[in-house]
Design goal:
Layout (H helix, E strand, L loop, with lengths): L7 H11 L6 E3 L7 H17 L7 E5 L4 H12 L3 E5 L5 H10 L2 E6 L17 E4 L4 E2 L7 H5 L23 E6 L9 E5 H11 L10 E4 L6 H13 L3 E4 L6 H11 L3 E4 L1 H17 L2 H7 L2 H18 L6 E4 L6 H9 L4 E6 L6 E4 L11 E2 L5 E5 L7 E6 L6 E2 L3 H7 L6 E9 L4 E7 L4 E2 L5 E2 L1 H8 L5 E9 L2 E8 L1 H14 L7 H17 L10 E4 L20
Parallel strand pairs: 1-10, 2-3, 2-4, 4-5, 9-10, 9-11, 11-12, 12-13, 24-25
Antiparallel strand pairs: 5-6, 7-8, 8-18, 13-14, 15-20, 16-17, 17-19, 19-20, 21-22, 23-24
Helix pairs in contact: 1-2, 2-3, 6-7
Length: about 550
């Protein structure tokens, strides 16, 4: 699609004119909203914002579960020249307070079940609260779902009169996105209209999208991954986007996929890894014959292929692109997806790059790699070592303006000649394909100066039976694995052993110690000498995570 200028209002106007009668943003369960309907609703909400006194450069926040009104609100904010501040639903009330105050947010749109988080929030800037579910004004002290359900909309969704002219330029700020970093510090990433729209447009060079495509949205829309690739990209090319009206649990997802029969789903490794461990692996372990057969490479490939055909049907049977980004995909799970001929694709990017930088479509994937650099983006590996590994530096129209009100951080992350320093370690192969090794801040320096990447060790640990998740850290010079076991499955196996062998006298605590020792041996047989574990500790509670499902490492590496 050719746009006169790369801005959100121009994208919306062009798409809604070209695809007026096509379906746009809807819930899985209901809705027949067309592109023309979408445009009309955006204009109506923009009128309301203008009546509230919102002007160009003001900040308007969205704290909401995924829904069609999320996208409508974002485009309405853009129409007024204001700046969207998307807030991830997983942020605490303290973080919410800090963000609203730091960004000087004037208006917030909040969804029904998240409004309670605003109860203790107070800033001198926040003047209006709007229930995004139906665009009703929220009076002070009204926070419970029951109270909110009684509110009536005060936005006239039939007000499609011409909006006052507001010039929105490509280099104007479209969003300030506060990252949910694993380092424990939220930074406001300033993204322009051009950053976002250009990145969405370039994603089309990796995976073409057209009017026949149907997206099923399951990741938070406040995250730039879902927002750019799961909202702006499909709308730019006339595709349909569907949302669940509740948190996307497996129980809800399967019937939704059967109904929508999606072409595209964007995901994070955790989701597909969980599907593999809970639905695929048990089928290969159910009897000794299949378990033995699965141990032979040719038989494994056939079994994986057959499992892949069933998995495709579970996903609705029409999936063309299952995007995986956000962190490294487990090697065993990726091997299964390849042998299953499942249409997975890997991408790499950051909030600071709006987000896409490099990636592949399902025909280009290669084991444990990302893929080619996206057209128009330049990557260099800064000061590579003897293996060609170094920090990934980026230039391109998708790179942020900087961090909001943080000039000292901008000096740290931008080189004097304008390269953005990602903090990620990577390498390029002879075909120009990017692979990611890990984060510089999480890399552990071995006793003899070797680079140890905890993510790679964790990938091996997470394949061990009974392991839910893990974290590898350095403690007092030792390489330590903190492991959260699936205690329910572990205890089942323990009782099974006791019943089968009458002379098995070990206590459950002894059995856990056996598993820890077995795990340590399992890992150490599969890593290099300087990456061997010295200690395995049981993590009794699930690790605390960011809203994008990454473990908050800073909490556990002290």
């Amino acid at each position: 699609m050719t746009l006169k200028k790369l801005t959100l209002p121009e994208l919306l106007k062009t798409s809604c004119s070209k695809f007026a009668k096509k379906l746009s943003l809807n819930f899985v369960a209901s809705g027949k909203r067309t592109y023309q309907d979408l445009y009309n609703e955006v204009v109506a909400v923009a009128h309301h914002l203008l009546r509230l006194g919102v002007k160009k450069g003001d900040k308007v926040a969205i704290l909401s579960a995924n829904m069609p009104n999320w996208g409508i609100t974002q485009f309405a904010i853009a129409q007024t020249g204001a700046i969207t501040v998307p807030i991830l639903p997983g942020f605490s009330s303290t973080e919410l307070q800090n963000i609203l105050e730091h960004a000087e947010v004037k208006v917030i749109f909040v969804s029904r079940l998240l409004a309670k988080q605003l109860e203790t929030v107070s800033t001198p800037f926040l003047k209006h609260k709007i229930l995004i579910n139906n665009f009703a004004t929220i009076p002070d002290g009204c926070y419970t779902p029951e109270e909110l359900d009684r509110l009536t909309p005060d936005i006239n969704l039939h007000d499609t009169s011409l909006l006052p002219s507001v010039e929105v330029e490509e280099d104007d700020i479209a969003s300030i996105i506060y990252t949910s970093g694993t380092t424990g510090f939220s930074k406001g990433v300033i993204l322009t209209h051009k950053n976002l729209v250009w990145d969405a447009q370039q994603c089309h060079t990796i995976q073409p999208v057209d009017e026949t495509y149907k997206f099923l949205s399951i990741l938070p829309m406040a995250h730039t991954y879902e927002n750019t690739l799961g909202l702006l990209l499909p709308l730019m090319y006339g595709a349909q986007v569907y949302y669940l009206d509740r948190v996307p649990t497996p129980k809800l997802l399967v019937p939704a996929m059967q109904k929508v029969r999606p072409t595209v789903i964007l995901s994070v490794p955790l989701i597909i890894e969980k599907i593999y461990k809970t639905q695929v692996v048990p089928k290969f372990q159910k009897n000794k014959f299949i378990r033995t057969l699965y141990g032979f490479s040719p038989a494994r490939k056939i079994l994986n292929y057959l499992a892949g055909k069933k998995l495709m049907q579970t996903f609705g049977g029409e999936l063309k692109f299952f995007g995986i980004g956000g962190s490294k995909l487990d090697a065993t799970v990726e091997r299964f997806l390849r042998e299953a001929r499942f249409p997975y694709a890997i991408g790499y990017g950051l909030t600071e790059t709006a987000p896409m930088v490099a990636g592949s479509n399902p025909s280009q994937t290669f084991l444990q790699g990302v893929g080619p650099v996206m057209e128009g983006v330049t990557i260099k590996i800064n000061e590579p070592d003897h293996k060609g590994e170094g920090e990934i530096w980026i230039k391109g129209p998708n790179v942020m303006q900087g961090y909001y009100k943080r000039p000292e951080l901008n000096e740290e992350v931008f080189s004097p000649d304008g390269w953005f320093k990602t903090g990620d370690l990577g390498a390029m192969d002879k075909q120009g394909r990017l692979s990611i090794r890990g984060r510089i801040k999480t890399m552990i320096l071995g006793a003899s100066g070797e680079n140890i990447y905890p993510e790679e060790i964790e990938s091996i640990i997470n394949n061990f039976r009974f392991v839910n998740e893990s974290l590898v850290v350095e403690k007092k010079g030792k390489l330590v694995a903190m492991v959260h076991f699936n205690m329910e499955e572990l205890e089942k196996q323990y009782h099974k052993l006791k019943n089968q062998a009458g002379n098995y006298k070990a206590k459950i605590s002894d059995y856990i110690e056996e598993q820890k020792q077995e795990l340590r041996e399992y890992v150490n047989a599969r890593v290099n000498n300087f990456s061997k574990l010295q200690l395995v500790l049981v993590q009794h509670e699930p690790f605390e995570k960011t809203p994008t499902h990454k473990i908050k490492r800073f909490l556990y590496s002290k």
